[in-house]
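During the reporting period the student researcher (J.K.) took over the structure-prediction task from the postdoctoral fellow and processed the backlog of single-chain submissions. One of the processed entries is reproduced below for the supervisory committee.
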Amino acid sequence: MARTVAYSMSMSLDGYIVGPDGRFDWSVPDDDVFQLALDEVRGADVHLLGRNLYETMLYWETVGRDGALDEKEREFADVWNQLRKVVFSTSLQSVTGTNTRLASGAVTDEIEQLSGEPGTGDIAIGGARLAASAAASGLIDEYRIRVYPVIVGGGVPFFPRAEQRTDLDLVEQRPFGSGVTYLRYRVAR
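J.K. obtained the following structure tokens:
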């Protein structure tokens, strides 16, 4: 069975992962949404990250050693640190972190190589530009979106702005008490 290539991020109601001011503080998850994120990371075999997301997620590499995290956060840090991570950047010369390496080629080449390797977990993608490149080549199988009840008015869009139609099938939807709605779409092939 082929592994699923999944693009998963939080998104404002108007379609952005980061607002025009560069902030994403509106996407802090409540306990239920955090559990969803933990379950997604647990289901991944490898995570492909753009530079911005990589730098944001470095937090999980060192936090928790001081005991400041709750049980779920410690669990997330443990799962995240065990996960293989591949960082795509033209500005970084090296990366740090457990099981983390800097990609040497294009995201499309990396996905094709990873898809050919044995494994059962997802190939997760985080980062809009990285996902746009994979989507343009038809390599994304699922879009997993946590839609937050906020309009930010601009910024970095979740979906690539390419003149390309992609039909999707809704395979899961889940509302949360915080007003967040989880939507999981599979690309119709």
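The committee noted the following: The two ends are 16 Å apart (CA to CA).
J.K. will present the remaining backlog at the next meeting.
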